[in-house]
Amino acid sequence: MLLKGISERTLLRWIGIWLTSRIILFSLLIVSSWLGGVDADVRHQSFVRWVLFRFTHFDSHLYAAVAERGYMPDGPGSNYNAFFPGLPAIMRAWSEVTGSDPRWGGFIAVFITGTLAAVLLGALAEDISGSADVATWVLTDASVEDVGVTVGGDVVGV
Q: Which of 33, 38, 64, 125 is the right S-S partner for 138, CB 3.0 to 4.6 Å?
């Protein structure tokens, strides 16, 4: 078993590295978007919606459409059937339980699964290298690798 023999302290360190990197990146995105005046009209209408839109670009709109309306029939420009139904199902369940935008359910699900993936990556790195320090280094590097952020329609690497 991959996590067998890994101390609780090591797991918490890995989770801490990952969560700290997410907090820093998310904060950087929000502050830079605010200072850059990105979608200022939306921010003035609803700050929470504005924050959510900083993280929902590209395929996330299609996932949200599947969560809200289900799979659409095939036709010109229809990409809905390309998506596995797991994430849209979680998004829809979140929306039905909380009454909020399904994109929040997707954001939270991806955040949780990203944290789990970081822990498993650390465990794999430790298993291969035999060192928790090497695994920590791998996680530190992986947590700040290329993150695409959309600002004003352009993708910017952070």
A: 125
